[in-house]
Design brief:
The chain is of the alpha/beta class. It is built from twelve helices and twelve strands. Helix 2 packs across helix 9 (about 245-250).
């Protein structure tokens, strides 16, 4: 089965207006998520790329690049069901593990079928497929994304077994933003990042402009982060190296030299880069959410007045705060 890429322009999401106001101020977004189903986010038409596990790895990663997607559900023809996701993280795990191996040549790995790759080389790192029903609430979807520490959640029809859509933090937050003006505004939305316990401010994973790509891959694997601020000698952020940037190594077949610096590797970006998206601790949660949604990015780098990195705030942090913990206030 060749990679299926039913490419159709995304249509507007057919959502419903929010229901009655929440009983508690900080629970308003929790109630909103509980009153909407995953099906409400499924567009009338969208692009979905599916790979058969018998497909060559090389073709699969090229298909990810050419379709501009970061992951794809895997279909096992023998079992007649979806068995997992192929992600850029898989590619990173393979590169990091076997780049310096005397036994395996990287270019040999890409000739394998996905099923061989998963069985032989990803045996201790791939997980069973986590999916959700279209009838489940968005609250359940957010909980599953955060609890399982995943970025993509396939919506699978329990009757047909078909994948309808891939839910992400970004798509859920964008959906919430469509209706946010119609809901009561919780007090915590007016609070600053400094006042709220949201984001990562300790042991921030970063790389320098001179850091080799191989070292950056090691940080992705060991610290399970999805992006690394690139800083100069003064600690000022000058760029960001994300997992998605690693896919360019596959597209350009430059993964036989992972000793080049991240700065050099970032010169091969396929998409236009508009600079690092930043925020400050004195900015409100409302402002930060608007910036994330409008820029369609997965995270903002928190900096001080000298552009020195102080933290990272991600979509996952935002959704956890809005939906699960009411602005960072832990619920019982």
């Amino acid at each position: 089965m060749e990679p299926v890429a039913a490419v159709v322009e995304d249509s507007e999401v057919q959502g419903e207006p929010p229901l009655e106001a929440a009983e508690s101020d900080w629970e308003v977004y929790t109630h909103f998520m509980k009153s909407h189903r995953c099906y409400d986010l499924v567009p009338t038409s969208s692009k979905l790329v599916v790979f058969d596990t018998s497909l060559q790895v090389k073709k699969a990663f090229f298909a990810l690049v050419s379709n501009g997607v970061r992951a794809a559900p895997l279909w096992d023809s023998k079992k007649q069901c979806f068995v997992g996701m192929l992600t850029i993280t898989d590619f990173i795990n393979i590169l990091h593990r076997y780049y310096k191996s005397p036994l395996v040549q990287i270019y040999e790995l890409e000739e394998h079928k996905i099923e061989t790759w998963r069985e032989l080389y990803l045996q201790d790192s791939f997980k069973p497929l986590v999916s959700i029903s279209p009838n489940a609430s968005l609250y359940d979807a957010v909980s599953s994304l955060i609890k399982n520490k995943i970025h993509r959640l396939p919506v699978i029809d329990p009757l047909t077994g078909n994948t309808l859509y891939i839910l992400t933090h970004k798509r859920i937050l964008k959906f919430l933003k469509l209706f946010i003006s119609e809901m009561p505004r919780p007090e915590f939305m007016k609070k600053t990042l400094e006042e709220l316990s949201i984001g990562t401010f300790d042991k921030i994973a970063m790389v320098r402009t001179s850091t080799p790509v191989y070292t950056a891959l090691g940080i992705f694997v060991e610290q399970r982060v999805s992006a690394l601020p690139v800083v100069d000698e003064s600690g000022r952020v000058v760029d960001i190296y994300s997992k998605f940037d690693v896919i360019n190594l596959a597209a350009e077949k430059t993964y036989n030299n992972l000793d080049i610096t991240v700065t050099k590797a970032l010169q091969h970006r396929s998409q236009c880069f508009e600079g690092v998206l930043k925020c400050y601790t004195h900015e409100t949660l409302d402002t930060i959410i608007s910036r994330l949604v409008e820029a369609e990015v997965h995270r903002l780098v928190v900096v001080d007045e000298n552009e020195v990195v102080k933290g990272i705030i991600s979509l996952s942090d935002i959704l956890q705060a809005l939906v699960l913990t009411g602005g960072g206030v832990k619920t019982a």
